[in-house]
Amino acid sequence: MIEVYYAEDDEIIAKSVKEYLEQKNCKVTIFGAITDIKKALISHLPAVILLDWNMPDGHGNELCRWIRDRWDDLPVIYLTVRGDSGDIVSGFQNGADDYVVKPFDLAVLHSRILALLRRAKGAEAMKLFCDDLMLDKEKAAVYYQQQEVIVSQLEYQLLQLLLENKGKTVTRRQLLEQIWDNSGNYVNDNTLTVSMKRLREKLHHPLCLKTIRSFGYRMEDTK
């Protein structure tokens, strides 16, 4: 499912876009003000943002600039009315990835979203997400609600293995074999329990990290 944040103050347009995209396996959250979408972005990032130019509390290019100051590769599609070429130029100067002119065909909008996500796929492969957690493989860093969390090398490897298998249960034996035994270090089962406890604490006990009792662990989105 593709998660979409949509900044749009026209309720009729917003409703039609939401209904269509949700038929196409998207989850759409509508924000009627720039202030509201900013608050949402601070705690959670969607797959793509649809950004209208005219908002009650500001312009789309201001929000786009704010987004780019924080997240370089968050996909943004700029929505503009026909003839506003200055809006399009401004949007791209501030980091929008694509634009769609109003009134637009909903099928065209959906195809633009898919095309943009395909282009971003390579970059996304370096980042693993689950709820408010992100693991950046390029930086070898872990983030909770956009704030970096300092973890040990072992904790990083544990989280990476679980995130790479998101939605699947990873057994305790698999974790022990792939993380410890591959390094030539034999440990007992209790070491895994202690390591996982410390990782949970550092990550603020995330609901998406589930324990499958006496079997293993599973990362699973809850939002």
From TrEMBL:
InterPro entries linked: CheY-like_superfamily, OmpR/PhoB-type_DNA-bd, Sig_transdc_resp-reg_receiver, WalR-like, WH-like_DNA-bd_sf
Domain OmpR/PhoB-type: 124-221
DNA-binding region(s), chain positions: 124-221
Superkingdom classification of source: Bacteria
The species this protein was found in: Claveliimonas bilis
CDD domains assigned: trans_reg_C
Function summary: May play the central regulatory role in sporulation. It may be an element of the effector pathway responsible for the activation of sporulation genes in response to nutritional stress. Spo0A may act in concert with spo0H (a sigma factor) to control the expression of some genes that are critical to the sporulation process.
Gene3D superfamilies recorded: 3.40.50.2300, 6.10.250.690, Winged helix-like DNA-binding domain superfamily/Winged helix DNA-binding domain
4-aspartylphosphate PTM sites in chain numbering: 52
Any Pfam family hit: Trans_reg_C
Protein name according to UniProt: Stage 0 sporulation protein A homolog
UniProt domain Response regulatory: residue ranges: 3-117
Keywords from the named record: DNA-binding, Phosphoprotein, Transcription, Transcription regulation, Two-component regulatory system
GO terms for MF: DNA binding
